[in-house]
Amino acid sequence: MLFSGLDLPTIESWTLAASHPSGIHTVLLNVENMSCQHCVNAVTRALRALDPEAAVQVDLAKGEVRASGGFDAEAAIAALADEDYPATLTSAEG
């Protein structure tokens, strides 16, 4: 195996840097109705419509989305609701 012996991070261990440029927010959301890769793509597209440079990580097993970009939690929740993925805020930074 090419990566044998490397301790690579899993989706559960990914974190974003705590310091962000001004105007960048990080939100952790509980998102309903996600069950497949189509859902991951739809959620990512919805958040990147708010900020094309947004970093979006989706954990289907936990029903969580961590996103960092030039939008606030309310905008992220509204964008996901428009795509039929109701979301609630777990935490926010920035």
From TrEMBL:
Membrane-traversing stretches: none
Organism, scientific name: Thermomonas brevis
Record's signal peptide: none
Segments forming domain HMA: 25-88
Keywords, alphabetical: Metal-binding
Protein's name according to its UniProt entry: Heavy-metal-associated domain-containing protein
InterPro entries referenced in this protein's UniProt entry, alphabetically: Heavy-metal-associated_CS, HMA_dom, HMA_dom_sf
UniProt lineage: Bacteria, Pseudomonadati, Pseudomonadota, Gammaproteobacteria, Lysobacterales
GO terms assigned for molecular function: metal ion binding
